[in-house]
Amino acid sequence: MQRKIVLVNQHSGYLFLDVVNAFAKEYDQVVLMAGKVVTMDDPLDPKVTVQKIFPYNRASTFKRFMSWIVCVVNIWWLLLTKYRQHDLLLSSNPPVASTLIPLLFRRRTSLLLYDVYPDGLVATGFVGVKNPIFKVWAWFNKCAYRKVDRIITLTDGMATTIQQYCPKEKITVVPAWSNVPTVEHSATKEENPFVEAYGLQNKWIVMYSGNFGKGYHLEPLVKVAENFRGYPDIVFILVGEGWQKELLSSRIESHGLSNCKILPYQPSAFFLHSLQACHVGVVSLTESLENVAIPSKTYNLLAVGHPIFCIGSVTSALARFLEKHEVGMTCDPTDTESMTRFIERLYVDKEYYRRLSDNALIVAKSHTKHRARDILELVAAGAQNRP
To answer: What does the pLDDT look like over 216-249, one tens digit per residue?
Structure first.
């Protein structure tokens, strides 16, 4: 009997594509339903069929929700008419798919939850726990999660949140992983295309790369840059786009900070080079992620041997992770004095920097693409155990 599976992710990045490729090695037919596929160095296995679905639209809250709803209808119709005999692995993108689709079909279904909804709406202040949207969505979760074979998530905090909807025996934690090879921190410093493109030769680089959205604590990083005016070789680089860009640019300009630069998102060919170029990687946590998620960029920074500087809650899942493995430090967004001391210590104390860097490489070796294989095995086992 042929094994067929449909994997669904409205906006598929490297973590999900690694999972898809793992299934392609074992299953007879593999279909990826995605509105957008973002590949890095590893292309999709040619065996995989890509089925386009309605793309994610983050232009506004209304458009975001509408793109979720339209996408779920799109998925439902395709499963009803074109992929009637396939097992399912549904991600939480779009969020309503992992709640509604299991209720609409009787077939082997597993969930891969990167986010937990409706709890994420509460964390961002969009609704309260007494709001009818929260109550109805939570009730549907309990009905849907009762029907699925396996729920896979990324952190213990997320697993704890999911337990309100189903027995903990159904839930397995598989941590995220890096998309880059584990390499020594200084492996390509001398002739790095990213360094050459932006004139960063002989600079000691503190870098944030990602979303400049409202919930990210990036202004404190610019404030810290002000404290390093007397260090001509230390620079602060912010790579990305988003709502805060104009605010950050204005502060940099008004304070005459020649040691702080904003760069646009880099082409994929520069991704690994930009990671290797910096000396300290910055991660900012939004309040909605503090207790449930560890951003995937964390693992990429570890893979190139960088100490990590987190701006966010000192009691977050990431803060505990950094402290446990001694690979970095978390500072409250208001504590720019501690931020300054930490960066200065990394710069001055070479032995301390090397210890954190070596620890990062050790941790990275346990967070590689073999985790995608773990997800494959969990889904396959769940399918075999279903009567």
So the answer is: 899 999 999 999 999 999 999 999 988 889 999 9
Q: What is the pLDDT of residues 59-88, one digit of tens each?
A: 777 888 899 999 999 999 999 999 999 999
Residue 202 phi, psi (nearest 5) = 60, 25
Question: What pTM was estimated for this model as a whole?
Answer: 0.80
When the candidates are 3.40.50.10840, 3.90.1720.10, 3.40.50.2000, 3.30.450.20, the CATH number that belongs to 4-177+369-385 is: 3.40.50.2000
**Would you state the pLDDT for residue 216?**
82
Residue 280 phi, psi dihedral angles, 5° rounding? -135, 130
CA 191 to CA 102: how far, in whole Å? Answer: 51
| Max Cα distance, the chain (Å) | 69
Residues 6+ apart with CB under 8 A from 112: 16, 19, 89, 90, 91, 92, 152, 153, 375
In angstroms and rounded to an integer, the radius of gyration of the C-alpha atoms of the chain is 22
Structure letter (DSSP) for residue 218? -
Sheet hosting strand 204-211, strand order edge to edge: 260-263, 234-241, 204-211, 280-284, 308-311, 328-331
Question: CA 37, CA 178: separation in Å to the nearest integer?
Answer: 18
Answer for the pair 279, 243: CB distance below 8 angstroms, yes or no.
no
Number of other CB atoms surrounding residue 41 within 10 Å: 12
Q: 193-364: same fold as 4-177+369-385?
A: yes
Q: Report residue 10's pLDDT band, with 50, 70 and 90 as the boundaries.
A: very high
| Per-domain residue ranges of the chain | 4-177+369-385, 193-364
Six-digit token string for 340: 């300054």
Stretch among 162-171, 172-181, 247-256 having the lowest mean pLDDT:
172-181
- Looking at domain 193-364, its CATH architecture is 3-Layer(aba) Sandwich (3.40)
